[in-house]
Automatic annotation (TrEMBL):
This is Pirin family protein. It comes from Psychroflexus torquis (strain ATCC 700755 / CIP 106069 / ACAM 623). Residues 47-140 form the Pirin N-terminal domain. Belongs to the pirin family. InterPro entries: Pirin, Pirin_C_dom, Pirin_N_dom, RmlC-like_jellyroll, RmlC_Cupin_sf. Residues 207-309 form the Pirin C-terminal domain.
Length: 339
């Protein structure tokens, strides 16, 4: 270890994060060709534990889906999700009456607040070839003052997300995709209105960093109080602070110091999560996050009584047919993007 690197950890299925983040789920699946109902063939579903299939058989999982991979409708309350789909597509539907399809670099920001039902299904839209998926879902906590805000979701379309292309002194390429925060003079798109990231002085940074073989990149310093974790999830190895770190590891970093990275022989992909801690008690029970047991019991009672508005769609595994990328918001506003 060093003054900059506090801890190095091997990555698992769910990546361990630090306050104000709760965790990051990483999904990488080589889904097969899709059928007319946007799911895999019946033959490929044999010998799978449908409804709870997390074994990566044949390079992919069904998760909680029975016919279509993904997560049929389920509740959230007390925090927010940032879902980045770099490959493939996700079909969103929720209890506010909103729905959409996003992918190929798009991100969705959803503040669950006082409670929402939503589904995230992974439609296999290619019927003539495979349907690879690469998806990150980051859980960002909400402070006590914001845990009861109205739920809200927003799309960050890949055409609009800032991506900074640079070269090091040797001409090696690198790029920084800014989902939240800023890099140098470039700022991210606005998050949802009641997001923790919308508040001043929280230092919320979510970047995806790509480094060509041999590229040298210096991660600039953050705020002294901030927690920062760098996830090295794809590549060969990176040299930093006198250590050679193989892919598949995360680095807990001291917030106020820069970190020089020298990439190895393969393209490297990294994810940065950074922010000032909320420093409040966290009581988590499945998809609910509260500050105390009493508040958690209140959330559970509310869900049992109201189902957070109920499910307005015809199926738990609701998908959106052969549409391209789009978002229909709860106020009726429709945004359509090129396929």
């Amino acid at each position: 270890m060093s003054d900059v690197i506090l801890r190095i950890k091997e990555l698992g299925f769910q990546w361990e994060t630090k306050d104000p983040f709760l965790f990051c789920a990483f999904h990488e699946d080589q889904f097969p060709k899709g059928g007319t109902k946007l799911g895999p063939s019946k033959e490929s579903l044999k010998d799978r534990f449908l409804g709870n299939d997390f074994n990566k058989k044949d390079g992919w999982r069904m998760y909680h889906g029975q016919e279509i991979p993904g997560f049929p409708y389920h509740p959230h309350a007390g925090f927010e999700t940032i879902t980045l789909v770099e490959k493939g597509f996700a079909d969103h539907s929720d209890s506010m009456g909103a729905k959409g399809r996003f992918g190929q670099g798009d991100a969705q920001w959803m503040t669950a607040g006082k409670g929402i039902l939503h589904s995230e299904m992974f439609p296999l839209i290619n019927q003539d070839k495979g349907n690879p998926l690469l998806l990150f879902q980051i859980w960002l906590n909400l402070p006590k003052r914001s845990k009861k805000v109205e739920p809200h979701y927003k799309m960050l379309w890949h055409e609009d997300i800032p991506i900074i292309e640079e070269k090091d002194k040797h001409g090696n390429a690198m790029s920084i995709k800014i989902i939240a925060g800023k890099y140098k003079s470039e700022k991210a798109l606005d998050p949802t209105p009641d997001s923790l990231a919308a508040e001043d002085n929280t230092d919320i940074q979510v970047w995806r960093i790509s480094l060509a073989s041999g590229a040298e990149f210096t991660l600039p310093p953050g705020e002294a109080e901030s927690n920062r974790v760098l996830f090295f999830y794809e590549g060969d190895q990176i040299k930093t602070e006198g250590s050679e770190i193989p892919a598949g590891h995360s680095l807990d970093l001291e917030g106020s110091q820069e970190l020089k990275l020298v990439n190895g022989n393969k393209k490297a992909e990294l994810l940065l999560l950074q922010g000032k801690p909320i420093n409040e008690p966290v009581v988590q029970q499945g998809p609910f996050v509260a500050n105390s047991t009493e508040e958690m019991n209140s959330i559970i009672r509310e869900y049992q009584q109201t189902q957070f508005g109920g499910w307005p769609w015809p199926k738990a595994e609701f998908t959106h047919g052969n549409k391209g990328r789009f978002a229909l918001f709860s106020d009726g506003n429709l945004v359509e993007k090129p396929k």
